[in-house]
Design brief:
about 650 residues, alpha+beta, Glutaredoxin, 8-stranded mixed β-sheet, 23 helices
Length: about 650
């Protein structure tokens, strides 16, 4: 399969300077941990939602300036108490505990508030605590611990941090987070507040490059181009070889239109900035970008030269991508097979016996899952290539491993590749039985249903009765899906928004009150978003007769200055009749706490979020049914929604 990129410390009272470190179920020692210390903890399931679980997994997140890493401490269980220790590095800002039972998918997140402990210095939380507190309360903690997301607390926590640490605005990232919070939370009154902060920053006796960047970025956002240009020019004069130049030369590599231009830009970049150890990740990224272009141009000699020094994880990923596109185009299949075979063999070895070091920000279990799914993706690509060259027997085995062993036959896209090979190597009766099972389980793509129809026609010499036959098979899956959707219904106020559409007209959520609104967050660069759009078009067409239903597609997380034009071009090229709104400041996507796109929300007629759907599994029929069922349940006439009012 080709690769697609579908993505807190607790509030305390003002002036108290004390975060909550006392919890019913969790005790830590010392109560105010400091960097470099060892923290002991005891977690009593008797006092938690996990009281009935026989086994609890304990994970500790450690947050610092560079990000986060995970500790999986050795646990001693005594009755209902789980105890252990975790060593803090000297630069840790805060730590967070996660308690769960993965088998039953149950968690304890302290009633949505999280088990989060600041790191202290001189009896007060360190500055970095407030940065992580604000981020975790405004969405990041929701992804990690299913914490309750409360975006408005982002600004409150950062303001409290400034009361305790007036110098915090000079701390890396603090002022940027603070201005972003003002812009997001204050909304209509944010500009004067932001301008006042920018004025204070500009009047500092000595400005760092980061300060100039903040001034340039925010004056640009406020559409004050002359001021933005002034500070940008001053930054470049004061820091002629600063990070701005490195970033600018990096963008030149990515923006070059052909392989020769990209290679020339890379050579200029390396001459200006000889690579250091910390630059290798970006350097490999540039090489992959160039190699992809060289491969498109069929300059295979330069392609091989460019990837020669890539580490195997990066090379395997690149091999998987380019071999997939070669298989789609049905060209140079021998080369595609060679590259895909190498990537797949490497991924299988890594899955079973990894040579790579575990990343610090994932658990051992998560890392094992990542390796397993990487193998599934590469094996799926290899199966697709083998199908195209007629090696059905071997292709079937790899497809079965990818679709069955890895994805448990729940992913319709992988199932489709498996089905194409299955009908080549098994008897029609057996293939029919498996295809019927896929349909009944709701794991069959449109093309798989077409394969089933072919077998049906061959058996019956006619399509008479086929629609009724298919409807009966689909009924069980739809009923099961309806039950699952009904269990996922929520009831929380949708964040208000007002955005311009592609015609320049302001559209607000209030304008749509009285309608069930389907909100789809997407971007022109997002593979899963684009893949889901044909199904969203069908869903919109299926519901077009209902005047009480509206669809809006919010374009967000876009880079560059041509956001509107890119969206217009994309919609025109694909003939999509969508009502597109532009989230130019990425404010609305933040207010909805979106962690990855595509993410869809269904909002009822009273303005409350009833459903949230993340990602796209590759099954168009399933997405159409899902959206239709969610709209039905969110309607005022729906018994489910009505009973919750």
């Amino acid at each position: 399969m080709k690769k697609v990129f579908v993505a807190v410390c607790l509030l305390f009272s003002i002036g108290a300077a004390k975060a909550q470190t006392k919890f019913d179920a969790l005790q830590i020692t010392p109560a105010q941990p400091q960097g470099g210390q060892t923290v002991s903890f005891k977690y009593n399931t008797k006092l938690s939602p996990l009281m009935d679980e026989k086994k609890v997994e304990v994970v500790v997140y450690l947050f610092n300036e560079g990000g986060s890493k995970i500790a999986e401490p050795k646990i001693v269980k005594t009755g209902t108490v789980y105890s252990g220790t975790v060593k803090l590095d000297s630069n840790i800002h805060c730590l967070a505990f996660g308690f769960s039972n993965d088998e039953n998918k149950s968690k304890d997140n302290n009633a949505g508030k999280g088990y989060i402990i600041p790191v202290y210095k001189n009896n007060i939380p360190v500055i970095g605590y407030y940065i992580w507190a604000s981020r975790l309360y405004s969405g990041y903690g929701q992804r990690l611990f299913d914490m309750k997301s409360e975006p408005e607390k982002k600004l409150t926590i950062l303001e409290e941090g400034l009361q305790i640490h007036p110098e915090a605005k000079d701390y890396p990232g603090y002022l940027t987070d603070y201005l972003t919070a003002i812009n997001s939370i204050k909304k209509e009154t944010s500009d004067p507040l932001i301008l006042e902060e920018l004025k204070k920053l500009a009047n500092k006796p000595v400005l760092k490059e980061e300060d100039y960047n903040i001034l340039t970025d925010w004056y640009t956002k406020l559409k004050m181009k002359p001021l933005a240009d002034t500070f940008s020019t001053a930054m470049k004069q004061k820091f002629p070889d600063g990070y701005w130049k490195k970033n600018e030369m990096g963008r030149a590599i990515l923006n070059a239109k052909d392989g020769a231009g990209k290679k020339a830009a890379l050579n200029a970049y390396l001459a200006a900035f000889p690579p250091k150890k910390e630059d290798l990740y970006n350097l490999n990224y540039f090489k992959i970008n160039i190699a992809e272009q060289l491969h498109k141009e069929k300059d295979y000699e330069s392609f091989n030269s460019m990837i020669k020094e890539l580490p195997m994880p990066a090379k395997a990923s690149l091999y998987n991508d380019v071999s997939w596109y070669m298989a789609e185009a049905k060209e140079a299949l021998a080369d595609a097979k060679r590259m895909s075979s190498e990537a797949t063999s490497w991924a299988k070895k890594e899955m079973n016996s990894p040579s790579e070091k575990k990343p610090e920000d994932v658990t051992k279990k998560q890392w094992a899952e990542q390796r397993k799914y990487s193998y599934g993706m590469y094996a799926d690509t290899y199966a697709f290539i083998l199908y195209n060259i007629g090696d059905y027997k071997n292709g079937y085995q790899y497809a079965k491993e990818a679709a069955g062993d890895v994805y448990k036959f729940k992913n319709a896209e992988y199932n489709e590749r498996y089905a194409n090979l299955m009908i080549k190597v098994t008897a029609p009766a057996m293939a029919k039985k498996e295809l019927e099972q896929f349909v009944e389980n709701g794991a069959a793509s449109v093309k798989m249903k077409g394969l089933l129809k072919d077998i049906y026609l061959a058996e019956n010499k006619s399509d008479a009765g086929y629609e009724n036959y298919l409807t009966k098979l689909e009924a069980a899956a739809k009923n099961k899906k309806r039950e699952e959707i009904a269990k996922s219904i929520i009831n929380e106020p949708a964040p208000k928004f007002k955005l311009k559409d592609l015609d320049g007209k302001n559209i607000s959520l209030d304008d749509l009150k009285g309608k069930v609104v389907v909100v789809d967050f997407w971007a022109t660069w997002c593979g899963p978003c684009i893949a889901s759009m044909p199904a969203m078009k069908r869903a919109q067409e299926q519901l077009k007769s209902r005047a009480d239903v509206a669809f809006v597609f919010i374009d967000t997380w876009e880079a560059g200055e041509k956001m509107k034009q890119n969206a217009v071009d994309f919609m025109t090229k694909n003939n999509y009749p969508f009502h597109v709104l532009l989230d130019e400041e990425n404010t609305v996507v933040g207010n909805f706490n979106v962690q990855g796109i595509p993410t869809k929300f269904v909002i009822d007629k009273a303005g409350n979020i009833r459903f949230k759907s993340i990602g796209f599994g590759g099954n168009d029929d399933a997405l159409v049914d899902e959206v239709s069922m969610m709209v039905e349940m969110a309607s005022a006439e729906s018994p489910v929604a009505a009973n919750m009012k």
